[in-house]
Fold each of these.
Amino acid sequence: MQRPLLLRGARQLLTLRGPEGPRRGADCLDLGVINDGSVLIRDGRILCVGQSRRIDNLAEARNAVVHEVNGAVVMPAFVDASSSIPESALLSSRFLDIAFAHGSGAISGRAPYGVFRALAAAPPFRASLVSVLDVRTQFDEAQLARAARRRLAQELRIEILAHTRAALHFFHSLALPVRAYSAPASNPDWMGLALAYGASTLEVNLPLNRAQIALLADSPACAIVTPAAAETARGLMDSHAAVALGSGFGTGAGATCSMQAAALAAACEGGLDLAEAITLATINAAHALGIANDFGSLEAGKRADILVLNLSGFREMSDYNGVNVVSKIYQAGTLVA
């Protein structure tokens, strides 16, 4: 058995610990900050987080390999709730590598069936990929069933009003979470239909009316926004809807491959506090993707996917727009970059 690993002495440790489920309203401002914090890791999982002097006194810490992170900000890896995977194998690999280098530990990438089939045969990527299968209006039932059975897809993305009731019943039979969206000129009632159907997430790319915001606020579904729709996030959060942030890579204006840049865009252009943007880009995004048991916060039992930022306080991130402030990346407790 390997010796435990101790990340000791973070100036700010952003744990993102808090209530179960995605954070709503004022809870999004609470990053669970521990000053002079440490993280104890064993077998790729977090054993304990807390103030350094308390962690130092644990029996397991006395035998640990110590990595000093004095003066730095330590936080969970970002989770990208929405991006588009390029169809070129070279470009998809490049995108995933760059996103990982900028701190994305898990990435929700949408693509058609052929792309995920090719990726399944490729060498594993450093970032964890949550595959979102783009379902076209004309689709092959056998192909979708095969994608679900072989776990090529972990989620279905559908334009909710473009499919018949029979098609929606078929999608439901695949037992995969559904991400719903609507074309710009579509019926505004699409959101009500998506929620009635049981969609777990809804892509929100356009301004919403009060009735739509109220529907989301009263539902367990999570709205996913990207930098292009950052202004929409403010109204949703003020209504206590659950909101997650994606990079929007490959999907249009404001898209980026860096979740640092996406969080800053949400803060600068969407009127969010930086703490809120970080919440949307970590624990809320993890809940939106159904991976919060492993990702999105620094808590006992979770995977030790951890970033060390070259900052003395997380709010300094605003001073480094366009700069990658990640200095170290730990993946399942192993220093990989």
Amino acid sequence: MCELFALSSRLPTTVRFSLESFARHGGLDGPHKDGWGIAYYVDEDVRLVKEPAPAADSACVRFIQDHPFTSSIVVSHIRKATRGAVAMKNCQPFARELGGRMHVFAHNGDLAPERLHLHLRLGHYRPVGDTDSEFAFCALLEQMRRLWPGGSVPSLDERLAVVTEFAAVVRPLGPANFIYSDGDAIFLHGHRRFHGDGRTAHPPGLHVLCRHCTAGADALDVDGLALASGANQEVVLAASVPLTAEPGWQTLAEGAIVVAKGGKIVATRSPTRASSEARS
């Protein structure tokens, strides 16, 4: 399956990727990777770089390694195609404007198209490509539109309620790990992922780590990913599989949602709970 990564930090940090190495954490060895993409938030906009080709052969990836970007919200996706052709239009993350800011979405899984189209309706937003992931993103934004009539950011409670309802609809349709950001917060949904033999999807599908880093220390330096910090820094990292051996990684339960903002976890929601501790 695909490989997901997200970062939320208190202060903007330099994010340096070696995607070929990073992919090995999720078991994506070899040349079969079908594309990659990284979205770096810059205020309400995003710097989005993606290609429908293996990262190992990419001049863009080499440029990012040598000239890393700085951001406090980052979303990355390495693709192994299950739905849709190997093409730029099907590479993730996907990005759309809503409420005067860019929204970003990345999905790890495989949603049955017929049931997806039956349970989720499109309106203003339409897919450019032909993946189940982009269709789901467009349907999520359609549900979000009512919260964004103007330029102000809706409350976290309102946004989390929409994401929770959306997640409950897509879970029965297939593996549905996803990362969604509106530039203010990151919403992380853990579900099921193919492990081992690749024939059966089961939890966990996403992991989260909270870190506090002192001034002058690297926030993280592992094979494939390095985060630099010039001040006291707080970060939340999310990945399909843990990137380090440290004990702080939190396994998301099937259907759990975690919301990160400013380098902290600010809300959680499980599929069995009727309320959350979200705060705006």
Amino acid sequence: MAYTIEQIATALGARAFGDGDIVITGAAEPADARPDELALAMKPDYAEMLSQGHARAAMLWDGADWQAMGLEAAIVAPRPRFAMAGLTQMLDPGQGWGGGIHPSAVIDPAAQLGQGVSVGPFSVVSAGAVIGEDTVIGPQCFVGVDVQIGPAGFLREAVRISARVVIGARFIAQPGAVIGSDGFSFVTPEVSGVEKARKSLGDQGEVTAQSYVRIHSLGSVRIGDDVEIGANSTLDRGTIRDTVIGARTKLDNLVHIGHNCIIGDDCLICGQVGLAGSVNMGNNVVLGGQAGVSDNITIGHNVIAGGGAKLLSNVPDGRVVMGYPATKMDTQMELYKNQRRLKRLFADVAELKKTVSKDGPSD
């Protein structure tokens, strides 16, 4: 696919300068750009690398002197990174799958496929499933009994969606995502050692062998509109009620959402984050990579947790936390600074002890 500079600028709501008829077939970093590629030089540091490539045109920041950079054309946007979202959508070549239903796909007669639905090789769509129009189901996917997927969904390779999951419009699932696996929920006939330890915060004392009995997952998973699930992420179904993912929430790769969790709208959950069961999370929450959230806690709206944070108790609205256990970011930073001062503090105390010992009264 190819677009002129003028066409791209118009589509992005940006301004075009110079030769608007230059044809662009792709995007590239400044040092690697070919003459038919748009260089993404959205900061002065990036623009310094334009001389290493062969770009005729670039996407620049507002106020950039494109002519001084030796360019023939430029696209300038007030927020270049936001414009980049539209640009990459225009230039995305897709996965190269053919449309329609592949001969090797297995579609149950009781499934309902909307107009324009595509189903890739070796994929299965089960009885009672309702697939919205223009949804693309890639190769080797599984869609369970009575699943509902809204219009314009996109399932990449080997996505698994279990029975009775309900998904909104424009859903995207990256390769290997699993939605609707059973929750990790087990119980012992008697009070377990784990329950005792959690209550007492002490050692178990005398230990008795215990066996675990499975609690089945009767709930499912409900997902709002415009949600994206990363590769190899897993969302457990609820025990009685559904696990819920709010509209426009994005999950990175290798994220685990435990049973009964309720995730709000517009949340951003980064790679390798794990939520234990029954977490209630508000809107616009950001969890940095490898953050962990204990079970049965509430995270308020607009919370930000730094990478690796471990949230062990409720977090109020608007709080920014980090560390293990997670505390307010400014508090945690002060603790880190104090830890780094310990060696010097010990040395100072040792020196004071020597001084006191020398100057003290003698026998």
